[in-house]
Specification:
Elements (H helix, E strand, L loop, with lengths): L2 H28 L2 E6 L7 H16 L4 E6 L15 H5 L6 H5 L3 E9 L7 H9 L1 H5 L8 E8 L6 H13 L4 E2 L11 E4 L10 H25 L1
Parallel strand pairs: 1-2, 1-3, 3-4, 4-5, 4-6
Length: about 230
């Protein structure tokens, strides 16, 4: 076979392979879900609003992405680590979240926390502690994309420290931790609540939230495509 015939055959084979693999890639995208976890003790306030901005930006990346916002406010989370011998007693309301977060269709999880005295909320810490169950279940969160958004009462009110503290726990789950990417490109989304429960005027913070949601979705889609 001469060179021209060989190249023509190779190109045709490549086109056939691409066409055959396209449905698999599309199917992988359909199964990607991004979940936002609001660790604020106050339901439907600024942390939930910030997560909604992230999730809306994630959905805008690709029409196949689905999102869900879970608020921990009002959920009974006991202090302590998961006890396999007493799952309901040791986990309380967290039991409901175990199958949701460990579902293979979940490609990314964005944790949101208000900033209390320069750090995450006690509700956020309880949530992360309860995630020990995923390590005990064969690292069920391993390979999922993770990101953090923090809302503080001042422009520089400890958001970055709170974010890094949460990221440390997520790294222990073998998750792929990402920041807010370009153009802001730092640790995560940092928003400012001036005290009136309204973050709509924080243009910079909203920008970081949009960048974070987009980045999580982009990385989750790439991972889903490679593993399909």
């Amino acid at each position: 076979m001469d060179r021209r015939k060989f190249l023509g055959t190779a190109i045709a084979a490549g086109a056939t392979l691409s066409a055959a693999s396209a449905p698999a890639v599309a199917e992988a995208k359909k199964n990607v879900k991004i979940i936002g976890i609001s660790c604020s003790p106050r339901k439907a306030k600024t942390t939930a609003a910030a997560l909604k901005i992230c999730l809306d930006a994630a959905k805008a990346v690709d029409g196949s992405i689905t999102t869900d916002l879970i608020e921990l406010a009002g959920l009974s989370l006991k202090i302590g680590i998961f006890d396999p011998a007493d799952p309901k007693g040791s986990q309380g309301g967290f039991v409901e979240l175990i199958p949701i977060l460990s579902d293979p269709s979940v490609g990314g999880i964005i944790v949101g926390t208000p900033v209390y005295f320069g750090g995450m909320t006690s509700l956020c810490k309880a949530f992360l502690d309860h995630c020990m169950v995923f390590r005990q279940q064969g690292f069920a969160l391993s390979g999922k994309v993770a990101a953090v958004v923090a809302v503080g009462g001042a422009r520089n009110g400890g958001q970055e420290f709170a974010i890094q503290s949460v990221q440390t726990a997520l790294l222990c789950q073998e998750m792929i931790v990402v920041g807010d990417s370009r153009p802001t490109g730092h640790y995560g989304a940092t928003l400012f609540n001036p005290g009136n429960d309204d973050i709509s005027t924080d243009e910079f913070g909203i920008g970081t939230a949009k960048n974070l949601g987009r980045h999580v979705a982009e990385v989750a889609l790439k991972l889903a495509t490679r593993t399909s």
